[in-house]
Amino acid sequence: MKNIFKSTLALVALFAAFTSCNNSGKSGGKSGALASNIAEKVYVAPGEHDSHYAFLSGGYSGNLTVYGLPSGRMFKEIPVFSQFPTNGYGYSEESKPMLETSYGFIPWDDSHHPDISQTNGELDGRWIFINGNNTPRIARIGLRSFETEEIIEIPNSAGNHSSSFITENTEYVVAGTRFSVPVPQRDMAIKDYKGNFKGALTFISVDPEHGHMDIKFQVLMPGFNYDLSHPGRGKSHGWFFFTTYNTEEANSLLEVNASQNDKDFIATINWKKIEEYVNNGGGTMMPAKYTHNLLDEATHTTTSTMKKEVRVINPSEVPGAVYLLPTPKSPHGCDVDPSGEYIVGNGKLSANLTVHSFTKMLDAIENEKFAGDAYGIPILNFEDVLAGSVVQPGLGPLHTEFDGEGNAYTTFFISSEVVKWKLGTWEVIDRKPTYYSVGHLTIPGGNSRKPFGKYMFAMNKITKDRYLPVGPEMEHSAQLYDISGDKMELLLDFPTHGEPHYAAAIPAEIIKENSLKFYKLADNKHPRKATNESETKVVRDGKNVHVYMTMIRSHFTPDNIEGVKVGDKVFFHITNLEQDFDVPHGFAMIGANNADLLIAPGQTRTLAWEAKQVGVWPFYCTDFCSALHQEMQGYIRVSPADSDIELSWSFGED
Amino acid sequence: MRKPIKLVAIIAIASVFSCGGNEKKEESTYGKKTPVITENKGPASERVDLTSKGVGPVTSLTLDAEIDQDMAAHGMDVYNKMCLACHKIDKKFIGPAPTGILERRTPEWVMNMILNPEQMVKEDPLAKDLLMEFNGAPMANQNLSEEDARAVLEYFRTL
Q: Which CATH number does the domain housing residue B157 bear?
């Protein structure tokens, strides 16, 4: 009796002690033990790091956001296609050329599908690419600086949607047009679309050392809508797959008219074959106007170049390079499994999910088993290339990713869920709801030869009641799931910025050690830098006044400038002399019509300011930099246009 | 008498397992130390301390009797690029002037102040007082290599 009493007491004491510090994860509605268990899976203690980076497209923000997994914390918004007042991107003189296009300066876009560079089919974490959908462009962001380093415009394209997907050694980043258009553009009746419009699929070569992009060739396809794409990998490396819709070639009321055909196509392109043709001089150089904008890290300056021609290929020129795979009902996502054998066509209006076999496709091609042709492009028989169907897994399939364990995960927009199914047997293993109306999903490495499993997140189009209400306009919601077990487990809800379409995620250790801490002053080759205070000066060039300025905790040199006149345009070329991690300074000038600047250590950035009124006008540092941050300020004196006050400048002089 | 002791032991062991366990990274000193009010010893920039080596990577340094002119020339170059924005040679500016510094500080202290300023202004009594004397203007870590910092020190010997 005594012993039992003793043991019971000990057990009670143990239980109390083991559970005493674990109350924080409990939330209403869930049982305490379960809720705290899930909370632990996403809890990253203060000061600790997440295990994965996730790069989410910013949708109509035109940018790219960086999140941590599993915490769902946002670390950074990287400006890509849109001006960004936060750091002056697209406003500073150095960065404005990045947003130049053949249509002129375009300060926004609609960014969709980020994809991380690969080596041997595995994420290498060197760069991330993303498409501008509206004014067709592809951007390359360096994953050392996390800055947009290059943007190339895509001619002959409109609605750059089946982009920007990368071949398994980053040989090409591929950009397919969603809208077909007259090529070249010309004045013609819209009703004459059918048979006359073209869809350009663009293969942009990527320099293996620097990542620099150049359009190698465009394949001018029939006037369908090219929706999404993915490269072959492993055994299918060398091929590229594009989903199509509107194979009806309707030019109006597409909602109805583009949904008539029982089957549309997945177009497949043997790009190695076309590359060989081009390397031997094949194709036609066609006049075109498109910009190529490139950041020089040494000068911190982007240069925009207008290109004048592009190489185009008609599919009939290269027999055996282009085929059409019939795929039911306006397929959206076009996803290739890690082995490269299975090509999933997510027929968004189809009851079943269609999976094609690469081996069967090659076999059908070899035996020339064609069902016919479209504008001379051979059409294969649906039954000949079909690997299998996932039967009625849900409503409105959109996108599929893979876990590397033989499973696929498909989003269903209409039934608002993610369904896990098995490659080869096509059986449904699990389904979990999403909140609400999911678009894309991402598994780290889930569109490569080596998925990293563990996490999957779904990006939803509709938020409704998931968060505290903030009026009619809301950020979208995403859900993170643990996929390490047989069943998916919902872990976390987190808001996302803009409308993230696709996202790319990668284990943190692949890139975090390479992340740049600051720019070395010794490497700064900006033509108007001042890398020490003896190089500071103010120079007049007609009505332009160039201020070569430095900043360090906590002063500007010079901080008193006189001799500027009404009507002058003052260019502040400011170099941050700090050589330490995370010591940026800001620069704000009263009445600036553009933005303020945020200048990283060792970097030079330029703000243009127009002197409009006589007076003495202050400028100051916008980034709290030290205990003397409030003292980091200066004045510029603006005199009448006919004043004869000479330019002068000073700092701390008696 | 033995039983209660056992029970206490179980609770104690269980408590150890149940809380914490995460490895600690950099500790914040916030709220842990009562600030010590120091007696007024005159401006820190004028005080002489030829024994303290400061806090940092340099623990022992012997200077040759003769100044290495090549090294000093390199040091001047580094100094002009990295330090001059805040330190004029011979007058108080954002920070103190380096002229005559080795009459007041050890060579190790000077190098540690260049190489490890964040820790110096937190832990070295002189550096702490200097921070206050210079209005809280932080000594920027310009990430000099130890070799470059050594060259700057050699340059200071020529001033």
A: 1.10.760.10
Do the beta carbons of residue A566 and residue B116 sit within 8 Å?
Answer: no
B65 Cα to chain A: minimum distance (Å): 32
What CA–CA distance (Å, rounded) separates A393 from B155? 76
Show residues of chain A in contact with B10, CB under 8 Å.
Answer: 10, 13-14
Asked if the C-beta of A532 comes within 8 angstroms of chain B's C-beta atoms, the answer is yes
Instruction: For residues A214 and A63, give the distance between their C-alpha atoms in angstroms, rounded to a whole number.
Output: 22
Minimum-distance CB partner of A577 among B11, B19, B85? B85
A chain contacts of residue B85, beta-carbon cutoff 8 Å: 532-533, 550, 552, 555, 557, 577
In tens, the pLDDT along B86-123 reads 999 999 999 999 999 999 999 999 999 999 999 999 99
A95 min Cα distance to partner chain B (Å): 26
- Which residues of B are less than 8 Å from A651 in CB distance? none
Taking an 8 Å cut-off on Cβ atoms, the answer to whether B142 and A580 are in contact is: yes
ipTM of the prediction greater than 0.85, yes or no:
no
Q: What is the pLDDT of residues A364-406, one digit of tens each?
A: 999 999 999 999 999 999 999 999 999 999 999 999 999 999 9
Question: Is residue B122 in some structural domain?
Answer: yes
Q: How far apart are CA A548 and CA A535, in angstroms?
A: 7
CA distance A620 to B39: 37
Nearest residue, CB atoms, A532 vs list B7, B15, B85: B85
Domain A85-441, what architecture?
A: 7 Propeller (2.130)
Asked if residue B2 is part of any domain, the answer here is: no
Please give the structure tokens belonging to residue A458.
């779904």
Q: Would the CB atoms of A626 and B138 count as touching at under 8 Å?
A: yes
Determine whether B91 is exposed, middle or buried from the number of CB atoms within 10 Å of its CB (0-12, 13-18, 19+).
exposed
For chain A, the domains span: 85-441, 521-650
Asked, for residue B68, whether it belongs to a domain, the answer is no
**Structural domain of B128:** 83-159
Across the A:B interface, residue pairs with CB atoms under 8 Å apart total 83
A47 with B7: Cβ contact below 8 A:
no
Q: Which token pair is A136?
A: 């067709």
Tokens of A398: 């959109």
Over the stretch A487-517, which tens digit does the pLDDT of each residue have? Answer: 999 999 999 999 999 999 999 999 999 999 9
- Tell which of A3, A5, A8, A9 to mutate to test the B interface (max B CBs under 10 Å): A9
CA nearest to B14, candidates A517, A138, A9, A594 = A9
Report pLDDT for A14: 45
Chain B closest-CA separation from residue A16 CA (Å): 9
Dist. CA A526–CA B142, nearest whole Å? 20
Report how far apart, in Å, the C-alpha atoms of A608 and of each of A91, A105, A208, A591 are.
9, 17, 36, 11
Determine whether the interchain pair B135/A627 forms a contact, defined as Cβ–Cβ distance below 8 Å: yes
What is the rounded distance in angstroms from the CA atom of residue A336 to the CA atom of residue B94? 61
How far is Cα A528 from Cα A537, in angstroms, rounded to an integer?
Answer: 10
**B77 in a structural domain:** no
CB atoms within 10 A of CB A591: 11
* Structural domains in chain B (count): 1
So what CATH class is A521-650?
mainly beta
> In percent, how much of chain A has pLDDT > 90?
91
Which residues touch B94 (CB under 8 Å, ≥6 apart)? Answer: A555, B85, B86, B87, B134, B137
| Chain A residue with minimum CA distance to B118 | A580
Q: Do B3 and A17 touch (CB under 8 A)?
A: no
Helix, strand, coil % over all residues of chain B, rounded to 5 = 45, 0, 50
A509: phi then psi, degrees, rounded to nearest 5: -65, -20
pTM for the predicted model, two decimal places = 0.89
**Contact flag B136-A557 (C-beta cutoff 8 Å):** no
